[in-house]
Amino acid sequence: MSIPKERQMEMARTMILARQFEETLADLVRQQGKIHGMMILATGQEAVGSGVCAALSANDILITNHRSHHHLLARGADPKALMAEIFGKRTGCNKGKSGTLHLAVPEVNALCTTTVVGGGPPIAVGAAFAQQYENREAVTVCFLGDGSTGEGSVHEAFNLAGLWRLPVLFVCENNKYAAAQSYREHTPVDSLAARGAAYGMPGESIDGNDALAVFEATRRARARALAGEGPTLIECLTYRWRGHGETDHQLYQPADEIAAWKKKCPIDRLVNTLREAGALGDADLEAMRATAAEAVADAVRFAEESPWPEPQEALDDVWVA
Amino acid sequence: MQKLGMGQAINQALREEMERDFRVFLAGEGIGVGIHTSPLMPTTGLLDAFGPKRVKDTPVSEAVIAGLAVGAAAAGLRPVIEIMFNPFFTLASDMIVNHAAKLRYLSGGKTAFPLVVRIKSGAGFGAGCQHSHNLEAWVAHCPGLKVVMPATPRDAKGLLKSAIRDENPVIFIEDMGLYFAPGDVPDEAYTIPLGKADIKRSGTDVTLVTWSKMLGVSLQAAEQLAAQGISVEVVDLRTLTPLDTDTLLASVRKTGRLVVVHEATRTGGFAGEIAAVVMEQAFAALKAPLRRVTGPDIPVPASPPLEQFYIPDAGQVVAAIKEIL
C-alpha cells in the first residue's frame, strides 16, 4: 500500500519542526542560559516520532520518555505550550510542574512522559488494556530506548502484552547509546527485535532514519493490534547526534561515528525522496522551513513573555479535589 | 446486620462496585483461581461472578500489575489491583511511587489516576519477614497517595467503596489476621469517607491512637484498664493520609495523654508523625510524655515465639499507659 502524499509531507513538516525546535533549545540552554535544568534532545532521531505519529489516529494513545520532543511535536502538541513548559512558565502545558523531561499533553492523547527508564512499557500495557476492555478502535504506542530493555519492568510489560494480546506497539529507538554505554556494552545480542519472540510478539528491526519505513512498520503493527493479534516490537535503528543531555561531553562517541550518521540525516533522506518523486520543490521546502522557524520563534517569544508561576502554585495539582 | 470477616466484607465491596461501574476491574496474582478457595478470602467467587474479562489473574509480575493500573486509570478505567503480601510492594513501588503518585502533578492537573492498590499485610502467619512487613509509613510519606488501613469488617467495606470511587490513587492495606475475625456489617448499602477517624471507645484519661489489627489489642488493653478505673479513649485512624487531625487533637486535648500503637517497626513509623502533629498543635494540653507501642526494629521472625515477641500485645499497651498516668 502506498503512503498518501499528504502523510509524507506531514512527516517532512514535523521532522523539520522538531529539528528546529531542538536546535533552538540547545542554543537557549548552551549559549543563552535561558533554560534551567536538564536538556535531553533527540536530534537525528526525528524520523521515529514523525513516521510513527503519521500512521496513528487521533484516539491512539502515546506513552513516551525523557527524549520526547520529536514525538510530541509530530503528534501535534502546541509548540508554544511545550516551549513555555520547558522554560518553566505558568502557561506551559503542565503549568511548570514537568519541565522538559515529563511533558504530558493529554490534548493529543500523549498521556504520560516518564523519565524513569523502563517506566513507560508497564503503563502502556495498562492503557492498551483499557482500549481492549472497552473495545475501542485504538492502539497505544510506547516509545522506549535501547537502554531501557535492560530494565525488568520492560520484560514484565512485554510478557503481559503478549499474553493478553494487547493492542500496543513498543517502538524501541535504538540510538546506539544508553547514557555513556554503547549498545554492545549493555546488551549481549545484536538484535533487540529478536526479543519479541520471547514474548509471543513479532519483532521487526527497521531503518529508523527512514521515516517512510517507520510509517509502514507502524501501519502494519497497528493493523495487527486492531485485528486482535496483539503487540509488536519495532526496533528503529537510529543514532543520537547529541549527548545524553546538553552537559554531556560525548567523549564516548567517536567523532567519525557521529559524522557518518550525520550523513544519514533522516530529514535529508525524506526530503530527497520527495524531491526525486517530484512531490517537493525548492519553494515548498523553503516554505516548510520558514513555517517551522516562525512556529519556533513564536513559541520562544510566547515562553519568554509568559509569567512565572507564583511560588505557592507548587502546592496545586497533587490531588483531585 | 450481617456477621462477616473482613475479607468477606471486602468481597462485598468489590462486588457492589463492579456491579455499579463497568470501569472497575480487578487484577492480581491468584485473585481469580487462587491456591486458597476459602470463602473468607477477599476475592473468592468474583471470577465466577464477573468472568475473566474483569477479574484478571496475572503472571507473577508486580511491576506490570501496578503499571497496568496506572495506564488503565490514565485511559479511563478504575483498576483495583492486589499485591499479595506487603513486602512485594517494593517490586511495584516504582509504578506506585514514581508514577501513580506523581503523574497527575507532572501533568499540571490534567490527568488523574483513580486506582486502588489492595495490599495484604500483617505478621502472625509464620511466613517470615519477606511476607510480613508493614510498610504503611513508606507510602504515607509519598504525596499523591491516600493510605487506608481498616480495622473492622464494617469499616473495610465502606472505606473500600469510597476508595474505588475516589479520583486519586489509594493504597488500601488489609491485615490478613482480620479476615478471620467476624464483625457486624450493615445489610444496606453504605460508604465511609476517607480521612475520617473513628472513636471506637470513648474515655477521659488517655488517648490511644491506632489502626488496623492493633485496634483489637488496644481495645483489650482499654478493657483491662477499665476494670482498674482507668478510662481509655481509643481512636481508630482508619486513614493515615489524609490524616484526621481534628479528631486526633480533640481527643488529646480532652484526655491530655497519648499512646500510639502500631504493628510496624518503630523507627520512622507513622507513630512519629502522630506524635509530631500532637506536639506541634496540642503541646499545652499534654500532661505527660507520649508513648509509642510498636514492633521492635527487627525484621519479622518466623518461629512462633519470636514472631509473637514481635507483635505488640495488650500487656505492652497497658504498661505504656501506666507509665504516663
TrEMBL record, chain B:
**Where on the tree of life does the source sit, at the highest rank?**
Bacteria
Give the organism, scientific name: Pararhodospirillum oryzae
Which ranges carry the Transketolase-like pyrimidine-binding domain?
A: 4-181
> What's one GO MF term for it?
oxidoreductase activity
What NCBIfam families does the entry give? Answer: PRK09212.1
Keyword annotations of the record:
Oxidoreductase, Thiamine pyrophosphate
- The protein depicted here goes by the name TPP-dependent acetoin dehydrogenase complex, E1 protein subunit beta
Entry keyword Oxidoreductase: yes
**SUPFAM superfamilies membership:** Thiamin diphosphate-binding fold (THDP-binding), TK C-terminal domain-like
